[in-house]
Amino acid sequence: MRGLVECVPNFSEGRDAGAVETIRRAILAVPTACVLDTHIDADHNRSVITFAARADHVVAAAFNAVKQAAALIDLRKHTGEHPRLGATDVLPFIPLKNTTMDECVQLAHEVGQRIASELHIPVYFYERAALRADRVNLEDVRRGAFELLRDQITTVSSRVPDRGAARIHESAGAIIIGARPFLIAFNCVLGSNDLDAAKLIAKSIRARGGGLPFLKALGFKLATRSRVQVSMNLLNYQVTGMRQAYEAVRREAEKLGIEIESAEIVGLVPQGALDESAEYFHKLENFSPSKVLENQLAGCDFLEANVSVRPQ
């Protein structure tokens, strides 16, 4: 496989920029690996590094990142708003140019086997790489987070990992690895510090609660800003895009007498997903052309420009 793959590992560290930089350098040590974006969030205590690599190199780059994160992050000392299962919490592979979803599933399984055998971190597969129907959805795998899994992995049969021994890694926890289509992580910050309101809005708009299709949402507190946030994943932006998600949050917030203060894209976004005429676009924090996936890919010397991205 010599096509192009995107990988978007999520790390349980958002307060130590030096640690995140060390992980980033570990990725870049692999030939053809190109870091496209790094997002650090102190409130969530979480970082997202988006990188692309040739398919025959992406497993090595992902493994380097997971190994470095395991050496730097101790889940026993970790606190933060975002639920997490491991030092590297989620490791998804996304097909881009000349790569199929089936190939990304194969890559996910390959790196999962290596992580389990060499790093002794239990592995769970999700989305298209899932080996069990009850592990397709990320939230089902991560339910209860690190602390509950630590108590149940040796005693509850449904928590036995897909790869590795049924034993939590003492400091690095576990890892959830998958293959999936491109998604957009999109957040709305409310002009309020009412966490119950943010959670109610998230529950009302997400697909599982009867809201918008292909939309996942949670409510979080942003302690550093005295605000709350509706954090969303758009799993198919051609069906439910940022305009629709923003409008849904706005409608539900208005019922509670709350306004949307700002919006945020975590990671990158395809050019075709942006709507510069929409209200959300004018409320985006720190948006620039560098947040557009195609622009970042064009800046990688070994990659061809004009890479198209679409849901699969």
Task: Please write out the topology.
Layout: E1 4-7, E2 10-11, H1 17-28, E3 34-41, E4 46-54, H2 55-72, E5 88-95, H3 101-119, E6 123-127, H4 138-142, H5 145-152, E7 175-179, E8 184-190, H6 195-205, E9 215-222, E10 227-234, H7 242-255, E11 260-266, H8 293-298
Parallel strand pairs: 5-7, 6-7
Antiparallel strand pairs: 1-4, 1-5, 2-4, 2-5, 3-4, 8-10, 8-11, 9-10
Provide tags for this entry.
single chain, 312 residues, Formiminotransferase-cyclodeaminase, Chain B, domain 1, Alpha-Beta Plaits, seven-stranded mixed beta sheet, four-stranded antiparallel beta sheet
Structure report:
With 312 residues, this protein is an alpha+beta fold. The chain folds into two domains: 4-179, 2-Layer Sandwich (Formiminotransferase-cyclodeaminase, Chain B, domain 1), CATH 3.30.990; 184-298, Alpha-Beta Plaits (2-Layer Sandwich). The chain has helices at 17-28, 55-72, 101-119, 138-142, 145-152, 195-205, 242-255, 293-298; strands at residues 4-7, 10-11, 34-41, 46-54, 88-95, 123-127, 175-179, 184-190, 215-222, 227-234, 260-266. A hairpin with a 4-residue loop joins β3 (34-41) and β4.
